[in-house]
Amino acid sequence: MWRITARDRLALDSYEAVGDGLYQPAALPVHHGDKLLRALVYVANDARPGRASARYREAVIAAARQWKLPADYVRALEGGMIAP
After folding, report:
1. Residues 36 and 55 in one domain
2. Are 42 and 81 in the same domain?
3. What is the mean pLDDT for each group of 10 consecutive residues in the chain (84 residues)?
């Protein structure tokens, strides 16, 4: 989790192609330690199922390991049962 500035938000919106309609920003509640915070996430406007690139999947799996998420969850990611 990061605190971002308005300038950061503009850069993120640009990177996520918000202006092109690819993604839309949303604020979702998340637990961070003992706090409930709002997190900025980007949600795809196209709800059709797809497959993440191998590079993206590897990054998600590495992050899951780094954050010490449950082993069964990491295995599910590795096996493609959970789409990152």
Report:
1. no
2. no
3. 94 95 95 94 89 90 96 92 72
